[in-house]
Amino acid sequence: MGKVEKHLLDAIARNGAAHLTLIDPAKQSPKISAEIASGAAAAGSDGIMVGGSTRAGGKLLDDTVLWIKKAVDLPVILFPANEAGISRHADAIFFMSMLNSRESYFIIGAQRRGAPLVKRFGLETLPMAYLLVAPGGEAGRVGKADLIPRAKPELAVTYALAAQYLGMKFVYLEAGSGAAIPVPTNMVRAVRKATQVTLIVGGGIRTQKVAKERARAGAEIIVTGTLVEQAKDRVKKIREMVKAIKSARGDRRIPST
Question: Across all residues in the chain, what is the average pLDDT?
Fold first, then answer.
């Protein structure tokens, strides 16, 4: 087990759930990205994800990661949209496959092209299935996803089980960046009950109530990005979110497997 994976699992074991802050380098300068990361660290976030945009690559990505690493001691985990979203300066990478894409490029093509870079840079890999749930947002459109309908948690379960049997350690249920509605709690609960993967949920999580409900349903990592970008007082907003997520530990309604 790598250092970053252990850090995340330790945070989950300690608090019941962990929080990751997603920063898209294409949306602000590296300096501002570092300020966001610093605020997230002060508020109790457990790590910084960097990426999410097809424009988040090259020098901008490298500079953003370096600025963030100077600002915080938290692990910096790449969240690449394609093979261009890889930086030698990060601590780890969510090496992910969009299993419900109609395009082979997002299932294995980008991964095949990026794998030699990951090896060359010595990045810790966190194997992850990335599943787009309706409404899916820009990620669903760009990734040509067959979106998982909100009323079909059993479909999410089949994908998550396939991911587990393929050896992936993480499953990310994503409603889309800035989604108007988050992943349904019954879908989170169904995937948690059926699998032994570490379950990540993101997209449309803007309030403490929504975050706590997903954590209670079995999400072990909650990701927020748009919320952080738009908040006037980032530290306060993230602190509230982290508190809500971690307070769910005592009343998680996860059926036994």
Answer: 93
Residue 257 lies in a domain: no
Helix, coil or strand: residue 172: strand
Asked if residue 224 belongs to a domain, the reply is yes
CB 165 within 8 A of CB 197: no
Please give the C-alpha separations between residue 127 and each of 38, 44, 79, 237, in angstroms, as whole numbers. Answer: 27, 25, 11, 30
Could you read off the pLDDT of 56-111 as tens digits, one per residue?
899 999 999 999 999 999 999 999 999 999 999 999 999 999 999 999 999 999 99
Paired with 101 in beta bridges are 145
Of 143, 53, 142, nearest to 100 by C-alpha is 143
Distance separating alpha carbons of residues 185 and 211, to the nearest angstrom: 10
The pLDDT score that the predictor gives to residue 178 is 81
Residue-level pLDDT at 233: 80
Of 168, 178, 49, 156, the closest CA to residue 111 belongs to 168
> The dihedral of CA 222, 82, 37, 227: what is its sign?
negative
Q: How many CB atoms lie within 10 A of CB 116?
A: 11
Q: Once rounded to an integer, what is the mean pLDDT over residues 226-255?
A: 74
Number of domains in the chain: 1
Q: Where residue 210 sits, what CATH number does that domain have?
A: 3.20.20.390
Is the full-model pTM beyond 0.85?
A: yes
Per-residue H/E/C for 177-245: CCCCCCCCHHHHHHHHHHCCCEEEEECCCCCHHHHHHHHHHCCCEEEECHHHHHCCCHHHHHHHHHHHH
Coil, helix or strand at residue 33:
helix
The answer as to whether 256 is a domain residue is no
